[in-house]
Amino acid sequence: MKPKQIAIVGATGSIGRQALDVVRHHPDALRVVALAGGRRVEPMLAQVTESVSHVVMDQPEAARALREALIARGRGDVTVAAGPDALVELVTRPDVDLVLMAMVGARALVPTLAALEAGKDVALATKEVLVAGGPLVMNAAKRGRARLLPVDSEHSAIFQCLQGEAPKAVARLILTASGGPFRDTPLEELQRVTPEQALRHPTWRMGAKVTIDSATLMNKGLEVIEAHWLFGVPLERIDVVVHPQSIVHSCVELVDGSILAHLGPTDMRIPIQYALLYPERAPSPVRRLSLADVGSLTFHAPDRTRFPALDLAYAAARTGGTMPAVLNAANEVAVELFLQGRIGFTDIPRLVEAVMDDHEPQEAELTAILEADGWARRVAQTAGATLTL
């Protein structure tokens, strides 16, 4: 059987690197033919294997440097380009069967729509795509007759639990959250939290942005919106529960009272592999989970006073239109400001809420979403400058 040919967008990030490891373990089933990344030339250079024929970088300078380095290595046959138009061209190439979308942030929306419209299956790791443009994405998948395969561990867990279940059999989706590094930190100490402390996730190893989102629980709010669109379940039937051990990745409650849970080690290569090989399963390179070693599993409701970002996400989703895009854009700016040391940890949800309060939501069509995204970023930057640490 011919290997599935893959384009990885966000190749030098955490998900992209782990995806390449999965591909290395399944050379007969998976083949990477195209890569896209940001500005880091050396990591991308290391990823250009013999099968890769096209690469897109974020900036022309990075593309030029990569092209020169490839020529020096005897790989002048690789086409290197830069910019958003080149990225759309890459994900819609005829030789691409599946696109792994792991680019950080809402800027992944346009190339995701293009890939789906072109009939490419998309393994989606970028939750912001469905947060900002959920109805557009689902309609694009329908028009292109393409599959949207979740890579987030929680949504992959739900997707796997739903196999063989009729939609009418589903009563509730239950997303699990680790609670991050500050689930037990006294509230009065949260404003003094440093970026270094917030980046020390207790159970997962992820990129900086998603790690901070995990610490504020904004990631779980974004995942609620993502689950709503992926699985067609109303918001009032999607719950969040804190599960510090991060062994149960999510659950599905059925109408008869049964609960199906997906358990596994905290290794993103499992959901990545499931999406890339779907509908097939194969041995994976991850360590096996020993329930005896795990011992006990605990669950409790999230503290919404400690984690106000969760309710902000539900509110944005209920409002609909362009409001989820504004929530996401403001959060991206707030997280970056926090990582730069310009605002405090508890200022992140404060800043997001302030931007949402100023927004007049519009209907969710692409131009309006992109305009709302840009507006929210500008307002968040301005508002962030007025906050004091």
What can be said about this structure in brief?
The protein is of the alpha/beta class and 389 residues long. The protein is 46% helix and 15% strand.
Describe the protein in words.
This protein is of the alpha/beta class. It folds into three domains: 147 residues, Rossmann fold (3-Layer(aba) Sandwich), CATH 3.40.50.720; 124 residues, no CATH class; 70 residues, RNA polymerase sigma factor, region 2, helix turn helix motif (Rna Polymerase Sigma Factor, Chain: A, Orthogonal Bundle), CATH 1.10.1740. It contains 16 helices and eleven strands. The strands form two sheets. The chain has a seven-stranded parallel β-sheet with strand order 4-3-2-1-5-6-7, with helices on both faces. It has a four-stranded mixed β-sheet with strand order 9-8-10-11, with helices on one face. Strand 10 and strand 11 form a beta hairpin. The radius of gyration is 20 Å and the shape is globular. The mean pLDDT is 95.
